[in-house]
């Protein structure tokens, strides 16, 4: 019987090199290595990964606006932050971070309790007889006339 010869052994594959080899970029070790966030977010390095964390509600942004605590820069958080609250005939409310003026109800007193709001945002002489006192009645043109 004749003995056969063994087969040749295989060679190993070539290793990878150059651009594109290696996979994901290295993680961060400090916050400063992370890209900046928006106006109301700050970057942090957590467990070698960058993340954006919202600034606390009330943090100032864009001069007079405020961060809402969810990463958004808004005009207001409460009605007290809306300009124009001194006008008794216009109510300024904060709705979804935006100041929304709405007319006060008709009959609301204005001008030092001498006049009434007309329900459309204007201060007029009267809208009902309650705005005229005892001497007068309110006419259709929002004026007090003596009776």
Description:
This protein has strands spanning 41-46, 49-54, 60-61, 65-67, 73-74, 90-95, 98-103, 109-110, 115-117, 123-124, 136-138, 144-146. The protein contains no helices and twelve strands. It is 0% helix and 30% strand. The protein is rod-shaped. It has a three-stranded antiparallel beta sheet with strand order 3-4-5, with no helix packed on it. The protein is mostly beta strands and 147 residues long.
Low-confidence stretches: 1-25
Mean of the pLDDT scores? 82
Strand content: 25-35%
| N-C termini distance | 141 Å
Instruction: Return the string of H and E elements.
Output: EEEEEEEEEEEE
Overall number of strands:
12
Structural class, judged by helices and strands? mainly beta
Please summarize the sheet with the most strands: 3 strands, antiparallel
Helix content: under 10%
**Number of helices, counting only DSSP H or I runs of 4 residues or more:** 0
Q: Looking across the biggest beta sheet, what order are the strands in?
A: 3-4-5
Topology:
Blueprint: E1 41-46, E2 49-54, E3 60-61, E4 65-67, E5 73-74, E6 90-95, E7 98-103, E8 109-110, E9 115-117, E10 123-124, E11 136-138, E12 144-146
Characteristics of this structure?
disordered N terminus, mainly beta, 147 residues
Concise overview:
The chain has 147 residues and is an all-beta fold.
């Amino acid at each position: 019987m004749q003995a056969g010869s063994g087969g040749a052994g295989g060679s190993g594959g070539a290793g990878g090199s150059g651009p594109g080899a290696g996979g994901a970029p290295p993680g961060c070790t400090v916050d400063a290595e992370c890209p900046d966030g928006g106006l109301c977010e700050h970057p942090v390095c957590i467990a070698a990964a960058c993340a954006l964390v919202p600034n606390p509600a009330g943090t100032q942004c864009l001069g007079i606006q405020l961060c809402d605590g969810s990463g958004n820069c808004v005009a207001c958080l409460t009605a007290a932050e809306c300009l124009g609250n001194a006008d008794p005939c216009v109510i300024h409310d904060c709705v979804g971070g935006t100041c929304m003026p709405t007319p006060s109800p008709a009959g609301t007193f204005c001008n030092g309790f001498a006049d009434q709001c007309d329900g459309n945002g204007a201060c007029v002489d009267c809208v009902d007889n309650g705005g005229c006192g005892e001497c007068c009645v309110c006419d259709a043109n929002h004026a007090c006339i003596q009776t």
